[in-house]
Amino acid sequence: MQIQNQIITTVPIFEVSETLKEVIQFFEETTFSHVAVTENGIYIGLLSENDLACFEPAKKIEDWRLELETFSVTKDTAWLDLLEMFSRNEANVLPVLDENQVIIGYYDLEDIVAFFINTPFFKEPGGILVIATGIKDYSFSEIAQIVESNNARLLGAFITDSQNDVVQITLKVGTLNLNEVAQTFRRYNYTIVYGNSDDQFLEDLKQRSDYLEKYLNV
Question: I need a surface site. Which of 46, 76, 181, 192 has the fewest CB within 10 A?
C-alpha cells in the first residue's frame, strides 16, 4: 500500500495577495481545519479555521501573514508520522510539499485513518495488550522476542503514552489467548496495563478484590 496514493488535489491553495473573501467561503462550506497559502507559488503557511470569526472579506491574506501556521509534510513522510502531525497540530488536512516547497496536494485525515485501519494491525485477528515499563528499560527487539517466545506473532507495536519516565506500549499480538504472553511480560518486569479478558492474572485479581469488598461489607 502506497501512502502517496492518498494525496488529494481537490482542496484549494490561496495566494497571499488574494482577499479573505474566498477563504471565508471555503471554511464555511467545508469541514477542513486549515488551508494553504503560497507566495509566488511557494508555500508560506496555513490559515486556520479557528480564526474564521476574525476574518474580514475585504482584507488580504497578507494581513494575516504573521498568524500563518507553518507545518507541512512531504510525499516521503511515513504514515505514522502523518498521524502524529495531524494530532500535534489539531488538523484534519496537511499540505504535501515537494523539494522546492511547492504544494503538490494535501493529505486528508479521514483518508489516512482509513489507510491505518486497513493495515494488518487492525485487519488480522489477534489481541490487544498494553504494557508499561521504565523509559530506559525496554527495547522493541526484546518485546518481539517475548511475544514470539510464546509462539505468537507481533502484528504491530507503538508507544501510546510517555510520562514521568514511564512508557506505555500498545501491542497487537496474533493470538486471542494473551494469558501466557502477559505472564511472560510480567516475568520481564513489565506492567500489564490492559489485556484481553482471558488474562487469568487480572481475572484472579478481580475475584479477590470482589471477595474482599464483600467481606468488608459484612
Answer: 76
Mind listing the pLDDT tens digit for each residue in 94-120? 999 999 999 999 999 999 888 877 877
Check if the beta carbon of residue 174 is closer than 8 Å to that of residue 155. Answer: yes
Q: Where are the beta strands (DSSP E) in the chain?
A: 13-15, 34-39, 42-48, 73-74, 93-97, 103-108, 127-134, 154-163, 166-173, 191-194
Query: Nearest-CA neighbor of 13 among 59, 72, 78?
Result: 72
Radius of gyration of the chain (CA): 24
- Burial classification of residue 107, based on how many CB atoms lie within 10 Å of its CB (0-12 exposed, 13-18 middle, 19 or more buried): buried
Strands 93-97 and 73-74: parallel
- 41 conformational bin, left if phi > 0, alpha if psi -120 to 50, beta if neither: left
CA–CA separation, 178 and 196 (whole Å): 7
Q: Answer whether 89's CB lies under 8 Å from 71's CB.
A: yes
pLDDT (tens digit, 9 = 90+) per residue, 42-67?
999 999 999 999 999 999 999 999 99
